[in-house]
Amino acid sequence: MKSIARLGLCLMVMLALAACSSRQSAPVIERAPATGVPAPKPAAPAATPPALAAAGTYIVKRGDTLYGIALDHGHDYRDIAAWNNLANPNQIQIGQVLRVIPPAATLAESGVVVRPITQPGAQSGAPGASVQGPRTEPSGAKKPYSDETLAQMQRDSGRSAPPPVVAARPAEAPAPKAVEPARPAESDEVAWAWPASGRIIGQFTENGTNKGIHLAAKVGDPVLAAGPGRVVYSGQGLRGYGRLIIIKHNNTFLSAYAHNSTLLVKEGQNVTRGQKVAEAGNTDSDVPKLHFEIRRQGKPVDPLKYLPEQR
Question: What CATH code is carried by the domain that includes residue 257?
Answer without folding.
Answer: 2.70.70.10
